[in-house]
Amino acid sequence: MKFTLLFGRILFSLIFLMAGLAHFSSAEIGYAASLGLPAASFLVPASGVISFLGALSITLGYKAKWGAWLIVIFLIPVTLMFHNFWAVTDPIAKQLQMSIFMKNISMMGAALMIAYLGTGPLSLDARPKLKTAS
To answer: pLDDT at position 131, please?
Structure first.
């Protein structure tokens, strides 16, 4: 059962690891700027760092509760600003944005569960503590 938690953490984190790296591309920065994000050349890479560090923390199980909060901090503005399906008029684009919005909401729920419960036994935080001589 402990491997299930490890694989779950890895699968959950993959999207943030991959997307975090993409936030350093000029295409990603340009896309965000075209949607009206101010200071996109700073905010997009900064959000990539937040996303990547949060996902790495969860994957490794090192300070994963903090990492999960980084994912939540990343998801809230991204979800509300870039996937605001309620403002889209094209029915197909609206459906796509609503799907992405709901995906992000569910990932936020999973991150909140990790923030509360932690990562389980196969994590760097769960390693046995060495006893020191007094």
So the answer is: 65
CB 37 within 8 A of CB 44: yes
- Residues 92-114: what's their mean pLDDT? 97
CA dist 62 to 2, 16, 111, 120, 122, Å? 16, 16, 14, 11, 10
Segment holding 113, helix H or strand E: helix 91-117
Give backbone dihedrals phi and psi of 122, rounded to 5 degrees, phi first.
Answer: -90, 70
- Check: CB of residue 85 under 8 Å from CB of residue 97: yes
Q: Is 47 helix (H, G, I), strand (E, B) or coil?
A: helix
Q: Record the pTM.
A: 0.89
Task: Answer positive or negative: Cα dihedral of 37, 73, 114, 65.
Answer: positive
Single out the residue of 50, 68, 52, 53 nearest to residue 119, CA to CA: 68
The rounded distance, in Å, linking the Cα atoms of 49 and 55 is 10
Instruction: Report the alpha-carbon distance of residue 32 to residue 5 in Å, rounded.
Output: 34
Cα–Cα distance measured from residue 127 to residue 130, given in angstroms and rounded to the nearest whole number: 9
Q: What residues have CB less than 8 Å from 121, skipping those under 6 apart?
A: 2, 5
